[in-house]
Amino acid sequence: MLSSANEGGSVKRDLGALAEREHDLLIVGGGIHGVAAAWDAADRGLSVALVEADDFGSRTSWNSLKTIHGGLRYLQTLDLRRMRESIRERRTLLHIAPQLVRPLPFVVPSYGHGMKGREALAVALRLNDLVSADRNKGLPPEQRIPPGRLLSRGEVLELFPGIPAAGLNGGARWTDAQVESSERLTVGFVRAAAAAGAVLANHLEAETFLRSGSRVTGVRCRDRLGDAPIDVRARLVLNAAGPGMDSVLSLAGIARPATPLLRAANLVLSRNLAGSCALGAPTGTRLLFLVPWRDRSIVGTAYWPAPSPERDDASSLLEEARRAYPWAGLVAGDVTLVHRGLVPGRDGAAGLVTRHRLIDHERDDHVPGLISVQGVKYTTARGVAQEAIDLALSRLGRRGGRCRTASVRLAHACPLEGSLEARARIAARDEMALTLADAVLRRLDLGTSGTPEAADVDIAEAVLAAEHGWSPQHRATERIALQATYVNAGVQSG
Q1: Cα–Cα distance for residue pair 326/353, rounded to 1 Å
Q2: In angstroms, rounded to a whole number, what is the distance separating the alpha carbons of residues 230 and 22?
Q3: pLDDT tens, 136-163?
Q4: Which helix (H) or strand (E) holds 101?
Q5: Which residues of 62-78 are buried (b: 16+ CB within 10 A; e: fewer)?
Q6: Could you say which of 34, 91, 165, 431 is the most buried, measured as most Cβ atoms within 10 Å of its Cβ?
Q7: Reported pTM
Q8: Residue 148: closest CA among 19, 6, 300, 277
Q9: In terms of DSSP H, where are the helices of 26-134?
């Protein structure tokens, strides 16, 4: 067995290769679920195509608290199945992407007694350790998750000197994991898929389904960079468009009850307020987390019904964070970026769905040739993709090999090395960075924590312009498009 994904994996945008043959599987959607499915399917011997309307991982997958969690909160509802799934996939990511995914301790202070007090936390930690008894199977020592433990009042105050001391009687400490760059991890899946033989293209938007009678036989796409139509034919189509799942289904004439969508938001702060541990604080019925990330902090996650005004969410989350962490002295100027994304909700309420959806449209809607998958979180995407490809193989009448994506290490799931100029060149040539935003936001980690330095953007822009033959007018357009990312990216004071 290979110990790491194919060391190739250069990702080229070849529209001719997409159109020249019928593929076994066409995946619509290049978020983390789509690209994980592409890697798994190609590795199991299918000929795979993937199209993404924007850039890989540019929408919901880009909105991230940077945590990979084992589902401790599912103990509240005794959802042990989902908890076990999260524990397994956390272990998997710690194994296949050790360059990016590492253990991170979490702390929740305790005040008083009862269901939210010290005693209840002790029970939760013990149950978590029992349910996750195999959490470190196959992991090296530096990647292992230690047992949880109770902290004394003094230990909590030593970790977080500013928190309110009145009534504090200790706390709970457990360990989950953090992904340093969810963007680079997504790119790692993209490159692994390409190395296994998948043909992928970003900025290629599905516009209508190709049909033969009632059977779906592919998708007609529009090249958003060249505006030319292209037909991508396949024996089976996997709709992995995430929150856009219903919109894609409408292209096939499938009317299903709409999935309620929530807008998720996280605030990136200019200061590290949490030291080396993530800190949880209750706000109403849930915990808000302050997570250390690089030399900064991320606060989240908060949710609103998607139709609510977007302009209010950052200010609302900042106010919630002020109440949760009064000692931090948070002001609007601390917020350097707001990450936003749409996620599946439940019955229109501000609550997440508990499980992913995998739909066989031949069985449920009498539309052969089409299946859909809609995940609920980044942590479990690889496992959800595996389940989707199991169904795809069954529908194609193919046995395929066993899934290896839980054991094969991602060779390219790490930050690029070398000068910025050299890194930008690799992004353009080998990672399908076709726009300035692709490079700055999702390949080079220049703009994931706030507005990037102008000098760095100048270098990236110059390299991409040379690689892609941009005119001066096109360069100006790219710069404006990147700047638009940061419009209303902070919180308005007053």
Answers
A1: 31
A2: 13
A3: 999 999 999 999 999 999 999 999 998 9
A4: strand 101-111
A5: bbbbbbbbbbbbbbeee
A6: 34
A7: 0.94
A8: 277
A9: 32-43, 80-96, 118-131
